[in-house]
Amino acid sequence: MTTVIFIHGTGVRPPHTEALNARVTASLAEAARGVRVVPLDWGERYGARLAAGGASIPPDGFAATGRDAEGEEEDEETAAWERLYGDPEAELALAAAHGPAGETPPGAAFPDEEFRERLAALAARGEDVAPELGPGLGARAAALARSPLLAPAAEALDAEDLAPLLARALAAAVIGAALAEDAPVLCDGAARDAAVDRIARELGATTPGSTRGPVGRLLGRPVLRLGSRYAVRRRRALTGAAHPAAGDVLKFLVRGGPLRSALRELAAAVEPPVVLLGHSLGGIIALDTLIEAPLPGVRLLVTVGSQAPFLYETGALPHLDHPEPLPAHVPGWLNIHDRRDLLGFAAAPVFPGRAEDIATDNRQPFPVAHSAYWSDPVVYRAIAERLP
To answer: Is 3 helix (H, G, I), strand (E, B) or coil?
Structure first.
């Protein structure tokens, strides 16, 4: 009789452990009769916990500093900037959608012409105007001068409102580009706002004084709950909910010896042949334990939605550093990952000839896709077909 040791993933704790084990046991028994499933319920004993009751988590919100009302206004602004870093022309598009403020007199210059000229002049000066934002201001100014949104926005807003709006768009474009390239952003909010004021003056504003215009205030509201204020106010609750998953990974990577020993003892105690079936971090635990030393009786490794290949490629797998080859004593390896699971990685490209990948599609968005493997018949069939 084949014994499958099921090793669950991060953050799994009772009573959810029992339900997960029951689902895997019943489904695998249906796909492969005669298989015995033995869970390794490691979360409660070896997983992460806040040993001091969360004493390291700062107090929620701004109440401790007496800045609650001020903090609310500042976080509206932060939420707007968060939106702009992802879409620098979001304010411009919102302004353009409002329509013209009035008729342009016959023979008068179009409102956007002067701004296009000032943006061209700013492009020629490059980073001299606001070096603290980082490189790319000149190129961003030249691109903004060609934006099809500039004309309708110029018709909708007066010059004193449009200049700081364009300045914010340029600052956001420079910073957003750095974020997209994982480059460090070395200016805080005060330095950014000072840079925006200088850019706004270059674009014709006479009293910039603030980085927030009337359109900017509207922009902050739709993303407020997704921005920093919601997270800051609920930091204790959010950290409490998230720490088992993140903490489990960190604890295993730093102090995984006792958990590896527990897996070795269980593998030695059950009837061979043995299959190690690990989900998420469970796959990392299984692979790393096998790499450390042979596990007699283990004939197959199955990882599902696991980050083990990624840790190996990044040099973070405890007992195997890239490009060292997989030890010969590691048995056959089936790695299953869903196309929509952002925490599932391919093993065959980094372990050629040693791992077999199967890409599934459980038709669930992430993060649900990371746990939906256990209701997918394709997963169980693939395992059943390869059991020793």
So the answer is: strand
The arithmetic mean of pLDDT across residues 163-190, rounded, is: 90
pLDDT given at position 214: 45
The encoded tokens of residue 311 equal 């840790």
Q: Which of 290, 225, 289, 279 is closest to 257 using CA atoms? A: 289
Coil, strand or helix at 40: strand
Cis peptide before 273, with omega less than 30 degrees from 0? yes
Confidence band of 157 (pLDDT split at 50, 70, 90)? confident
Do residues 103 and 110 make contact, with C-beta atoms less than 8 angstroms apart?
A: no
Give CA–CA dist 12/27, Å, rounded. Answer: 19
- At residue 159, the pLDDT reads 87
**DSSP string of 96-136, one letter each residue:** HHT--SSPPPTTPPPHHHHHHHHHHHHHHHGGGS-GGG-S-
SS3 337: strand
Q: Residue 204: left if φ>0, alpha if ψ -120 to 50, beta else—which one?
A: left
pTM over 0.85: no
